[in-house]
UniProtKB/TrEMBL annotation:
Organism: Natronomonas pharaonis (strain ATCC 35678 / DSM 2160 / CIP 103997 / JCM 8858 / NBRC 14720 / NCIMB 2260 / Gabara) (Halobacterium pharaonis)
Family designation: Belongs to the eIF-1A family.
Name this polypeptide is given: Translation initiation factor 1A
SUPFAM superfamilies on file: Nucleic acid-binding proteins (SSF50249)
The S1-like domain, residue ranges: 6-80
Amino acid sequence: MTEETQRKDLRMPDDSEMFATVTEMLGGQRVRLQCNDGKERMGRIPGRMRFRTWINKDDVVLIEPWDWQDEKADIEWRYEEADANQLRREGHIK
């Protein structure tokens, strides 16, 4: 198989979303994130993801920063390791 046939169509960020990497698990459904815009934010794992999607350190996630408090964000999506590697190869994340 070639690399092109292994490529998947992945969920990409909307205008208000961006990629981030989990740098630290803080407990209480909170994580520390290193965002693609260079800022460090505190992320919140929403209830709809809490028991269905396990988020760990070094996972690549899609976040939506809060409008009223830019240093915080909600996690919208978690990428599998293979999907994160594809995003890195294509230059979407650092």
